[in-house]
């Protein structure tokens, strides 16, 4: 980790928030930035390892080709999941900057601090998240465009 830049909260906008102190927001921000760095490093490592390249022109039998295809598909799905997680982290960082961090995007109510400590990129309170998931199961997904993280 020789050339990794040390975390500096002054590199980020931190807006006033009635639910958290500036120190708490900086703490959440550090966790988010660290998680973002880990995901970016993991993605870079996966891409550099070449596990997503598949050349069917190589002399492979069908079993080898099938195994390589399964491995490639798994790698792509994991990269997609990590990319979605990166988007959620970026969104949470932006919310720290605009003063909306810690508020449920569905109800506007504060998300409990303990939930944010476990998953600082969460967008919804547990109650609203359960409501969203229930409406999706029933097929009445009026909020189908909302992410399910």
Describe, in plain words, how this protein is organized in 3D.
The protein has one domain (18-138): Up-down Bundle (Four Helix Bundle (Hemerythrin (Met), subunit A)), CATH 1.20.120.910. The protein starts with 21 loop residues before the first helix and ends in an 11-residue tail after the last helix. The chain has 149 residues and is mainly α. Helix 1 runs antiparallel to helix 2 (62-98). It has helices spanning 22-49, 62-98, 113-118, 126-138.
CATH class value: Mainly Alpha
What's the CATH architecture name? Up-down Bundle
| DSSP strand count | 0
CATH topology: Four Helix Bundle (Hemerythrin (Met), subunit A)
Q: Give the helices and strands as they follow along the chain.
A: HHHH
Major sheet: size, sense and barrel closure?
none
* Total count of domains: 1
Distance between the termini: 30 Å
What is the gyration radius calculated from CA atoms? Answer: 20 Å
Helix content: 55-70%
Classify the secondary structure makeup into a structural class: mainly alpha
Number of helices: 4
Regions with little confidence, pLDDT below 50 for 5+ residues: none
Assess the beta-strand content as a share of residues: under 5%
Judging from the principal axes of the Cα atoms, what is the shape? flat
Give the full name of the CATH homologous superfamily.
DksA, coiled-coil domain
Mean pLDDT: 84
């Amino acid at each position: 980790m020789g050339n990794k830049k040390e975390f500096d909260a002054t590199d980020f906008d931190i807006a006033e928030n009635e639910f958290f102190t500036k120190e708490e927001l900086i703490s959440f921000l550090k966790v988010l930035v660290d998680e973002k760095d880990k995901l970016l490093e993991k993605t870079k490592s996966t891409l550099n390892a070449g596990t997503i390249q598949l050349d069917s022109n190589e002399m492979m039998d069908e079993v080898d080709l099938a195994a390589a295809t399964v491995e490639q598909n798994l790698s792509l799905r994991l990269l997609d999941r990590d990319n979605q997680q990166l988007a959620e982290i970026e969104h949470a960082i932006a919310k720290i900057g605009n003063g909306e961090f810690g508020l449920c995007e569905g109800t506007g109510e504060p998300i409990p601090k303990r939930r944010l400590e476990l998953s600082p990129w969460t967008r919804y309170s547990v109650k609203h998240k359960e409501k969203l998931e229930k409406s999706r199961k029933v097929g009445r997904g009026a909020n189908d465009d909302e992410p399910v993280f």
